[in-house]
Amino acid sequence: MVNYQENQKDISLKIKKARKLFILSCEIVVLNFLGILPVTAATEEPVLSVVYGQENANQWRGISDRLQTIGVKYCVISLNDVKSGADWGDRRVLFLPNVETLTPTQAIALEDWMSKGGRLIASGPVGSLSSPGVRQLLRSLLGGYWGFSLSDTEQIQAAKTKIPEWTNQTGLFGKVRGGVVIPNDMGSESPAVWNSKDNPAAVVTTERSTFLGWRWGTDTASAAELDNAWLKTTINHYLTALAPSNRTKKIAGGSQSCSTTVAAAPMGQGGSTSLREASLSETLTRTPTATLSDRGAGGQRGGSSLSSSPKTATAPILRSLPMVKPPSSQEAIDQLEQAVRLDVAPNSNEPIDNRQAIALQQELENLIGRVESAHLAVLADAANVGETISEGEGKQFSRHLNTPQSVKEQPTQLASTKLGALTISKDQALAQARLIAKNLPQLIAQKNYALARQQWLLAKTTLWQQFPVDRKLAQPEIRAVWLDRGTIVRAGSKTGLAQIFDRLAQAGINTVFFETVNAGYTIYPSQVAKEQNPLIRGWNPLEEAVKLAHERDMELHAWVWTFAAGNQRHNEILNLNPNYPGPVLAAHPDWANYDNLGNMIPVGQSKPFFDPANPEVRQYLLKLYEEIVTKYKVDGLQLDYIRYPFQDPSAGRTYGYGKAARAQFQKLTGVDPVNISPSQADLWQKWTKFRTEQVDSFVAQVSQQLRQKQPNLILSVAVFPLPEQERIQKIQQNWETWARRGDVDLIVPMTYALDTSRFQRLAQPWIASKQLGATLLVPGIRLLSLPTIGAFDQLQLVRDLPVSGYALFAAENFSNDLQKLFSNTQGRIQSTTSEPIPHRQPFQTAAIRYTALQREWKFVFQNDQQQRSSQKLSDFNNQAEVLRSALNQLAASPSASKLVVAKASLTRFQSQFRVLMSQEIKSNSYQVKVWENRLVTIERLLRYGERRVQLRPW
Fold it and tell me: What does the pLDDT read at residue 680?
């Protein structure tokens, strides 16, 4: 009887709960039908904060109109006031519309705020003009990054793959003018895509953020109905995902201040508080209705000094945007770099889709390949010089190890023994990693996502510790480093500079990009430039650097800023006015370039630029470079900032309106370029082409004139690795053209990334490109915040790809640990002959690199237990020997006829290589691909050498 009564009570309770749930469901349906957010009905407290900044100020009317239509209460956060996580407020959801510049401090604060439960909605090219570290962190927070703007309006449609249920609603799809969002490999979903080739992502969402790939609130980008549908749906998703009791819960530690007024005073001029509330259910006016009180009258950052009476939201007064002072705290940048997380969070149980699973597995297999490839190089070299090798070490490279093998203790010192981190053997680590890679799909299929991530990270960490760090494994390659102004200044004298060159030489660096022209100042006393860098006193660093480099068999290339004429950060060091344009523009203001608002320095950037169309600018720069290459025995010249500043035409932010450029373009077309816009397709294309040609023609002019003065000069360019058309639209830098024409010898893309897989994704398109003619590609690696073994891993990838070397940015981050590792693995050995540098001695480099390849094949074959026919092995060795002989003869005495023979022998050998390596492909496809890549490197060296020494068979 008791049980019966208890059961009846339980049933009654369930019925009551079901009735309440039904009523609540009906309420939600009705409210959705009326276009009102459920959370608004549930509480009068604002649940949303919207960020207002200089970059969206001119769009604020459209943004606020749409918010008014939605009818949701919100707080307005002044971006200028954000200094900590608390300043992002205590509301659960933050909306960041169309803000392209965040400081490191603001980005770190945003991460802190989100770690406490905050949810982020962002639109437009968020953070795209921020520093590399900020962009990296935002990519982690947003689950992706803004790739590039689309040239035309496109249809947004639902992705064909399974999409989150909350995005499967009407009203979310339609015509939009926006850009491609590149999702992270893991943890991100793309519920909406563009109806264009390959269906790139238009929206990327994660558990805690949603990234809309268009400028929300602008009529030129999208219709108000579509904007409102996405914002309502996303806010609802993040709030209803929480338990009902938590939907109104505030973010711990966030500022509680929330006012109804948007300040009309220019930001940064005082008189503003961090947070403002705007209740758009009230009437929206277009003029200021209240003035915020000054900070200091008892007010503090994050506090409120507003009256308690309700205010009506107002739009800011449209005005010219002031110049933005860039972040000046190096410490904030350091903190940011340390805070940047990789995509694989160890304890995250977010779903892993099929694409992400494949990427995880592939990257692990590639890392296994890189570790084995590094050990093979070490062992083959050791066998060549007669060192003792254990039997197990030799046999492991003939096939993949599917089960752990017992091998003798390895004499090679591993990174793990140096760091004292792990005791696992190399063979055990490789076997463990293969097992993890094999089991990943099963873990993911079982939805054991956290364990899959933990296993993946364990394998990666363990493998990183298995790289050989005490043996030489590098072949002849370009090993360049940028020696920056700050490091030169700190050296202080020839003695201090000599110590830097000693360290670099011991580490095997053979090419130094020496910062010679920076922010309009020369590092040396010039007869052409207006002023030597004021931080240099009493000595000539360039003169001393050339001597120091040549005494150590290194090359010295003068690294010069081309069209960037000044630097606000440098002004701060010199205690100058932040807006000082540099010594050259100060003396010649007519040489300056401007954006479409009349600013010499674009909003959110820190450097004024010369007008490349100005003949006097071009003549000055050519005269300056001629002084450098004739007065000093530099081996090369590197052009940096060989471009316009970053722009985004679709956002109405363009650059290039210098006096000379406007006059020349108007003479060509009859139209002043300040009066045209991207909507005028034909004229805009001509304007973009005109600016691009100013840069193209200057590179050609530099190449032609300087080579006449110094025929052996190596000309290189530091460039952005953006897709070609996006790059032309944004910075007018078309370096493929310079490469094809033969204007430059080296293309150095700044492929900076904090992990190897991202580095590969950045560099691979350009390494595989067929558009570079005979020019060599040298990927750039940024050392800042990169772990020592992480840097080594990126170098190993470079050595496994078809490139001839790398460039490290920069000397100031060249740590002692890195110096020791480099000294062991690529440092100089006592020898009577120096190692060739690819860009200087391409044929000799090709011959030596091929000999090293032969050693690896020989080593593998000798230790291989697989059965091969003697005839097949003989054919392989004969063809390999023919190629070796042809390359050696060309290296010893270059001639057109020998080049023809070498190229023909290489082509024939490459065509048969996969057939000859058919057994190895089955057992170790990664290593076979590495060998193929190295053959391609030799092919490119021959092509470069042909152009360099102008060998022709006719």
Answer: 94
Cis, peptide link before residue 810, omega less than 30° from 0: yes
> Which residue type sits at 465?
Q
Which of these, 861, 596, 755, 768, lies nearest to 139 by C-alpha position?
A: 755
Map residue 380 onto helix, strand or coil: helix
Alpha-carbon dihedral 86, 89, 90, 92, rounded to 10 degrees: -120
Residues shown for the chain: 954
Q: Report the alpha-carbon distance of residue 947 to residue 950 in Å, rounded.
A: 5
Task: Give me the sheet containing 201-205, strands edge to edge.
Answer: 175-176, 154-158, 189-194, 201-205, 209-212, 119-123, 93-97, 48-52, 73-78, 275-279
CA 166 to centroid of chain Cα atoms: 31
- Give pLDDT tens digits for 507-536: 999 999 999 999 999 999 999 998 999 999
Please report the DSSP string for 68-121 in residue order: HHHT-EEEEEEGGG--SGGGG-S-SEEEEES-----HHHHHHHHHHHHTT-EEE
What's the pLDDT at 775? 98
Higher pLDDT, 832 or 579: 579
DSSP state of 565: -
- How far is it, in rounded angstroms, from Cα 133 to Cα 333? 7
- Closest to 545 measured CA to CA, from 466, 476, 475, 632: 632
| Alpha-carbon 49 to chain mean position | 29
Q: What is the pLDDT of residue 301?
A: 30
End-to-end CA distance of the chain: 110
Instruction: Read off the tokens for 799.
Output: 């050595």
Q: Which residue has the tokens 């991202």?
A: 758
Q: Return d(Cα 784, Cα 754) in angstroms, integer.
A: 9
H/E segment holding residue 415: helix 415-419
DSSP 698-710: HHHHHHHHHHHH-
Tell me the sheet residues that pair with 781: 808
Helix (H) or strand (E) holding 189: strand 189-194
State both tokens at 2: 């008791």
DSSP state string for 572-622: HHTT--TT---HHHHH-GGGB--BTTS-SS-TT----BB-TT-HHHHHHHH
d(CA 560, CA 485): 11
Question: Do the beta carbons of residue 677 and residue 684 sit within 8 Å?
Answer: yes
More confident residue, 57 or 124: 124
Measured CA to CA, the distance from residue 537 to residue 525 in angstroms comes to: 10
Q: Which residues contact 791 (CB under 8 A, 6 or more apart)?
A: 781, 783, 818
Within 8 A by CB and 6+ apart from 211, the residues are 122, 123, 126, 142, 143, 144, 181, 203, 204, 205
Whether 143 contacts 206, CB under 8 Å: yes
Q: Could you give the residue ranges of the DSSP H alpha helices within 465-602?
A: 485-491, 494-506, 541-551, 568-573, 583-587
**φ, ψ for residue 518, nearest 5 deg:** -140, 125
Write out the two tokens for 468. Answer: 């050989």
pLDDT at residue 291 greater than cutoff 50: no
* Strand (E) or helix (H) holding 640: strand 636-640
Tokens standing for residue 55: 């970059």
Strand partners, 749: 719
Give 627's pLDDT tier (boundaries 50, 70, 90).
Answer: very high
Burial class (CB in 10 A: 0-12, 13-18, 19+), 156: buried
Q: What is the pLDDT of residues 141-172, one digit of tens each?
A: 998 888 877 877 899 988 887 777 787 777 89
Quick one: pLDDT band at residue 14, thresholds 50, 70, 90? very low
Q: Do residues 187 and 348 touch, judged by C-beta distance below 8 A?
A: yes
Token pair for 707: 């080579």
How far apart CA 94 and CA 85 sit, in angstroms, is 12
Question: What distance in Å separates the CA atoms of residue 198 and residue 233, rounded to the nearest whole number?
Answer: 26
Tokens, residue 476: 């002849």
